[in-house]
Amino acid sequence: MAVTPITELNERARDVFRLVVESYLGTGLPVGSRTISKMASLSLSPASIRNVMQDLEELGLLAAPHTSAGRMPTETGLRLFVDGMMQAAEPSVEERRAIEAGISEGGPIEEALSAATAALSGLSACAGIVMVPKREPVLRQFGFVPLNERQALAVLVGQDGSIENRVVDLPVGVTPMMLNEAANFMSARFGGMTLAQAREALRREVEGDRNALQGAAGELVARGIALWSQDADDRPVLIVRGQAHLLDDGTAADLERVRQLLEQLEGKQEISRLLESALAGSATKIFIGSENKLFSLSGSSVIAAPYRSGDGRVVGVVGVIGPTRLNYARVIPMVDFTAQTLSRLMR
């Protein structure tokens, strides 16, 4: 349904609509005409308000969940409110400090991104999300930690201090000494390279029959490089924090919606594709409910803002996912401030 322009609503309709939306966003409950009539800013009788609310319902901006209940904004109504009526509230000093506290220079960038996401989640009472810049780490050190006779934990340390682990199947005959030998060889030979460069260097050595390690140890080196390289394109690029915020006191009667949303959060690649649509923009984007097919069942909203590298390129997206009943006026500026803070960190 096309969104009714705000200019097509008269002043009385705009006032009633705004009060209904603001009350619903604050309580999560349908709003009745008697409740609206008691608000000091509106001098209309309950009967007059009912007539206006009926008109707004016919326009597709309000809906009654069931007979004799009050009314609540539809997704179309929420879009109209966010785009044309909402008065954004800048983050408070305390909120700014909470966001900035976890974002400090030094250490892996992923730690700062994770901290920013956790802070944003806590302040917004939503699940915080951040898309990490896609980049291949420059290698510094490898290690193998034996788990049992047939498996070991392969440890990769990047030059930025990042650490990633994978479980690797061991070739037959590998001893603890061979694990150390292979790790030392990989650290010495491939340190300072990316995974792609290390894979190519290993290929040239094998083709030229110049591989310094033979037998099981040499096979272990090949398996280790292959293991790290095979998922380079699918490397997790989405950090999600604060899913527990989605299970608040107001969700007891709506557990199916929350369950669907939590399942959607597990499908990180799907959400990553959604967030990638925000990479092309220069401003905060808001996706409300079924405006995006991914959240059509759970009825969730996404607020996402791009953040930039030192040269001005958009490298990632930060935001929140929660129910459509969000305090948009507070959360949108908060997401935008987080994106600006991350952009300053990237400089």
TrEMBL record:
UniProt keyword terms in alphabetical order: Repressor, Stress response, Transcription, Transcription regulation
Pfam families: HrcA
Domain named Heat-inducible transcription repressor HrcA C-terminal: residues: 110-332
PANTHER family in the record: HEAT-INDUCIBLE TRANSCRIPTION REPRESSOR HRCA
Family: Belongs to the HrcA family.
Entries under NCBIfam families matching the protein: hrcA (TIGR00331)
Role of this protein: Negative regulator of class I heat shock genes (grpE-dnaK-dnaJ and groELS operons). Prevents heat-shock induction of these operons.
Name of the molecule in the record: Heat-inducible transcription repressor HrcA
